[in-house]
Structures are given as C-alpha cells and as structure tokens.
Amino acid sequence: MNTASRIFKNTSVLAFGQIISYVLGFFYIVYIVRYLGAEGFGILSFALALSAIVRIFADFGLDSLAVREISRNQSLGRKYLGNIIAMKIFLAAVCILFIVLVIDFFNYPLVKDRVIFFIFLSVIIGSFNGTFNSLFLAHEKMEYQSIGTILNSALMLIVAFLVVSNGYNIVTLAILTCGVSIFNLLYSFTICIWKFVVPALEIDVKLIRSLITNAWPFFLSAVVDIIAFKIDIVMLSSMKGDLAVGYYSAAYKFLEVLMFVPAAFVGSLFPVFSKYYFSSIDSMKLLYQKSFKYLSIVGLPLAIGTTLLAENIIFFVYREGFSESVLALKILIWTVPLIFLTYMFGTVIASMNKQVVALKINVLCMLLNIGLNFVLIPDYNFIGASIATVVTYVLSFILCLYFISMHLCRIQLQDFISKTVIANLVMGLFILSFINLNLLLLVPLSIILYFGVLFLLGVINKTDYEMLTD
C-alpha cells in the first residue's frame, strides 16, 4: 500500500468513525438541547468551554509530541507512554484543585457548580484517553481510535435517553458523562495492552526534561489556541448570561460536528508529514498541495449550503425555540472552510518542528479574538461573538498560509479554484430553486450535484483516483 493509499485508508477509518459518531451525536444534541432549553444548554456549554481551556494544562502538549516522536521511532512507545502518564497524573491533580478554587471564587449557583465539576472531571479523564490515542495514531492504527469514538457517542446517546425519559436534571447528565469517560479510558487501556505495549508508570528524569523542553511549544500553542476559540463562550456567559450562550452554542455545535473532516484527515497526515520532512521534502510538498485541494473541495460548499439553509437546519434540529441562532449559524459557518485548512496548516508547521511559529500565530489570534469580543459582545451579544470568531480564523488562515508559502511551497491551484467556484454556484442556485424541499432530500441531492459538476469539470481526475487506490 503506497503512502497516499495509506492516508486515504486511515482518513477513511477515522472519518467513518466520526460520521457514525456524529450521527449518534446528532440525536444526542436533539434530545439534550430540546430537553434543557437554551439556558440549560448554555450552562452545559459554559462548563464544556471552561473545562476545555483548563484541560490544556493537563495535556501540556504531550500527546501531540508523542505522535510526532513515536511515529519516527515506534520503539519509544512504551517509554514515552509510561513517563507521559506519570506527568499527567500530577498535572491532572493540579488542574482539579484549580477548578475547585475557581468554582469557590466565582460562587456560581449550586447546580452550575456541580455541572462544571463533573464535566471537568470527565474532560480530565479524557486527557488520559488522548494519550493512548496518540499511540494508536503514531502507529497509524486509526481504527482503534475510530471504534472508541463510536463507543463514546453511542454511550452518550444512551445517557441522553436515560436523562430525558426519566426526567433527570443537568447535574445527573454531567455525572453520567463522567461515567462514559471512564468507560472510554478502560477501552483504550485494554487496546493498548492487547495490541501495543503494557504501560507502566515510569519517571525518567532525563526524558521528562526532554518532554517538557519539546512539548512546551505544543502546550503554549494549544493554550492560546483554545483561549482564542473558546474564550468567547466564557466572556459571553459573563457579559450576557447563559441564555445567550445557549443560542450561540446551538449554532456553534454545527461547526464542531463538521470538524470530523479535518480531524480525521489531519490525524492521518501528521505522522506522514513528520516522516517526509526528514526523508522527502518533494513528497511533503505534493501531499500538502493535494491536501489543500481536497479540504477546499469539501469546506466551501458546506459554508455556502449551510448559509442558504440555516433557518431550515435550525428549525429542523432545535425547533422554533432557537430561531435566535439562525443568524449566528449563517455567520459562524464561514469559519468551516478556514478551519479545514488551518487544521492542515498547523499540522504542516508542527511537522517542520516550527511549533514556535504556530505559537506566535495563535497568540496574535487570541489577542484579536479577546479584543473583538470585548468590543462586539456588549452591543451585539452572541452575534458579535460570531463575527469575532470568523475574523479570528481569517487572520489565522492568512498567517499560516503565508508562512508555509515562504518556507515550503506556494499553492498552485488557480484552475482548480475557478472550477470549484463554478461547482459551488451551480449547487447554490439549485438549493435556492428548491429551498422548500424536504431537508433530508435537498441536502443529498445538492451534494450529488456538486460532486457531479466537479467530476465533469475535471477537478476530481484520474490522477487523484490512482493516488488513493494504488
């Protein structure tokens, strides 16, 4: 199996898992959002955003470093795993203490306190699960992560069903979510023992120093990245309350659902890019060009189609109670094509051992996002937060593209871009012509039409097919 075929296989495995996961997740969201309402969903979203920010300190960039280093030398797996787990136990304890102090300091209502604590606990447990997944990724055995993703979503759907059918409150939901994280950790631990290595806690002072030295750029970049793109929910909650967070998060959820595309693709690319940077720069350039092409093909029509169908989508998923989220979705969805490509850009930059560059870019994006949120949220509420998010991703896209163009290669896809624009115009006109058609019929027909036009224009050609199937 050649490299392109292997990437396609690994991407397909991850994508399949994510697709199944998000289908299950769709029903989970429908159940939970309709049950909790905008304000309850706002509390849950705030807890998730705050937990995601603090979790970065428990991860410390160690999982990304493990993928890169183990993919280059798989014999390091057991040693890296043992030391990283030991480090994470210490970091997790510090983070749990911190979140308890935060809850005490801000004196949130009791229900909100408990939701934050149990959601944070589930996220911290997920951090250890991420360490095992990094081992699977480094060995390019994406199927194990894919199965874990499906199991997680299936269990969360069961949790949603139990909560709604029995009339449990949001605190019970948070506790059960924590239980699902424990189950997922046991699954990953079992696979690690069965298929890879038996992990054992190890404290190698020399290696730990090396891990800290090499992981801190990943860590700092992740810190500013998560603050840049999650702080809006925390700020929105403080300035406008949980109801505004609920409307904003309802729209933002669609972005998170669509992230399976770059997440699966980039998960397959990282170990390959890391190898190519040392063994074949020409192959890395070709893979970068092709990756840009494929991600652009998928990202742009998602933004156009969702913009045109935003009202239909919101009412279909959440019903009329979330009509306030329609405009937010129309704005936020334009981050999708940008996110698709910046995910890939970040992987390329990390593979080039230029984590510090990614850090600088993320710092600028963080400062811009915080500044825009301070300016826009007071007057424009969650719509202002939506605008700030899009502008922040535009800056990230421009800076990453500029750096890679200067230090690796420029994108030479002018003909491809013009043909893709034509395909999107045809799809957009089709959607507008049949806007009242049932959503479950209109969306598949639009996708078929779009890719059909791409095929007729030669955007998807024989070379692409051969690369993926040889």
Précis, in short:
The chain is mainly alpha-helical and 470 residues long. The chain has helices at residues 3-59, 62-72, 77-106, 110-138, 142-166, 170-196, 205-240, 242-258, 260-279, 281-318, 325-332, 335-351, 355-407, 414-433, 439-457, 462-469.
Q: Biggest sheet: strands, sense, closure?
A: none
Tally of strands: 0
Rg over CA atoms, rounded to whole Å, is 22 Å
Order of helices and strands: HHHHHHHHHHHHHHHH
Residues in helices, as a percent range:
over 70%
Q: Ends: how far apart?
A: 7 Å
- How many individual helices? 16
Low-confidence stretches: none
Question: Per the principal axes of the C-alpha atoms, what is the gross shape?
Answer: globular
pLDDT average, as an integer? 82
Query: Which secondary-structure class do the elements indicate?
Result: mainly alpha
Q: Roughly what fraction of the amino acids lie in strands?
A: under 5%
Description:
The chain is built from 16 helices and no strands. With 470 residues, the chain is mainly alpha-helical. Helix 11 crosses helix 13.
Summary keywords:
mainly alpha, 16 helices
Show the helix and strand layout.
Elements: H1 3-59, H2 62-72, H3 77-106, H4 110-138, H5 142-166, H6 170-196, H7 205-240, H8 242-258, H9 260-279, H10 281-318, H11 325-332, H12 335-351, H13 355-407, H14 414-433, H15 439-457, H16 462-469
Helix pairs in contact: 1-3, 1-4, 1-5, 1-7, 1-8, 1-9, 2-3, 2-4, 2-9, 3-4, 4-6, 5-6, 7-8, 7-13, 8-11, 8-13, 9-10, 9-12, 10-11, 10-12, 10-14, 10-15, 11-13, 12-13, 14-15
